[in-house]
Design goal:
Blueprint (H helix, E strand, L loop, with lengths): L2 H23 L2 H11 L59 E2 L6 E7 L4 H19 L4 E7 L8 H13 L3 H10 L1 H7 L2 H6 L4 H13 L3 H13 L7 E6 L2 E6 L4 H12 L3
Parallel strand pairs: 2-3
Antiparallel strand pairs: 1-3, 2-4, 4-5
Helix pairs in contact: 3-10, 4-5, 4-8
Amino acid sequence: MSRRVILAVVAVLGLVAIALQMGRSHSPALAARSKIDAAPQPLPSAQPAPPANDRNIAPAVSSSPATPEKTAESGNAAPRPIPPQAPAGLPDVDPHKAFGSKSAPVAMEVFSDFQCPACKTLYITTNRKIMDDYVSTGKVYLVHRDFPLAMHAHSRVAARYARAAAQLGKNEPVEQALFQNQEKWEQSGDVDGTVAAVLSAAEMAKVRALVKGGTLDAAIDKDFALGQLYRVNQTPTTVFHSGGQTYPYAGVMSYDTLKSFLDQLLSGH
């Protein structure tokens, strides 16, 4: 084969290759495939992270609260509860920080921080009424869980004093004093003085001994670890248990809203 023929064949093959390349670049299917392979699409973004300076929210982003299943008549979609995330029977419950009947059809775990303003609001406007209307009547078993956020300088100290007082049967007056005087001891750091104002001298001596004994942190740490299991990162967060399902709710609910919520859960029992 002559040299001229060989050069002609090479030229033709080159033209064919160029034509194939141009066809590929103009093929919509191939072009789309090329883009997908080169740049995978990101997943939908999650809920924006809260501001770092929010006093009641840890750095992690909390998941959207779940609500009980709605009936078809309500006209609303039915959010699905999350599967139970803790062993049945509510582990590591301090009997001094639990109220009502263990066999109540609904259990509430309230993860709270004594230095959190939203926790104060929930306690004063909602949970005290829940204690009267649902806990004392055997409908709800309420468990206080300590979840002191690191951004609050005195919240762990307050949790120690509250637990010590609870062991003496003085949970209610001390919790009330801590929440109602929150702004004062938050500024001064005088948790001791706040608690002493509602206890006798003898009771206060016992509380101080328990606080100094260093045995209360273990229970606080267990509550905090359980909160992490539930992915709690905002106070207050209430975790409801009913009918084998778990419903977490982050934030403050009004009494009327929570009453409706509980009545809906109780209607299934």
